[in-house]
Structures are given as structure tokens and as C-alpha cells.
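EI: anyone free to look at a 125-residue chain?
SC: sure, send it
EI:
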Amino acid sequence: MSISKNVGKILVGGVAVVALSGVGSAYAGGAGEDLYSTTTGASTWSDEPNSSVAVRDKAVDGDAVYSLYDRRYNTGKRLDNSSGEGTTVYSTGDFTNYISKVTACVNLNNKPDRCGPDDRPGDGR
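SC: here you go
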């Protein structure tokens, strides 16, 4: 067998191992990591594979909370939770159009809303 045939078999085998090992999961099924943002009174997250986002009200203060989030193909989305302290609201799931950013916010009447930091894949948070 010639060297070029052996090299070809090794390359094809290597590609198969990489494909089966899950390398490149950010492309195959989500943002590639859990996303989380919090501020006083609210938290939001999207766990791998990032098909949906959740927002939780953490304070007995009468203020509604929400998540500002982006999906792979849509930006500037908002998920509201006005159900009160201790409740969590979930978005619909979509594995192809996965969550790519989350930000937790509290809706403050007659004041600027309070928001936590954004969390995006690969930002080191």
C-alpha cells in the first residue's frame, strides 16, 4: 500500500473521531456553555445546549423581572416574569436557534430598570 493511501485513511479516520467526539458542539447544539446573569432580585440562565432561557424572580418587592436575550438568528428578545417572588418563567425551546446572550433585569416603576451583566459564550464569565 502506498504512503498516500495510508495518509488518506488516517485523515478520514481522524475526521470521523473528531465528528463523533463532540468537538465543535457550539455549532452542533448550542452556545457551547451555560449562560447566567444575575442582579438584586432577578436571575436568568440558559443551560447547555441553550435551547431555552429562564428568568426567576428572587425578591418579595412587587417588581416584575425579565430577561433580555439573543438567539443565534434573532437579537433583542425579552422574556417577562410578573408572577412574583420565587417563580420561574421559561421561553420556548429551539435547538437550532439557540440562546447566545442573557441579561437579568428588574422592572422598576418610574426609575431606570436595574440589569445585571450580559453573559455570552466565550466571555470568561
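EI: The CA atoms of residues 62 and 84 lie 7 Å apart.
SC: 👍
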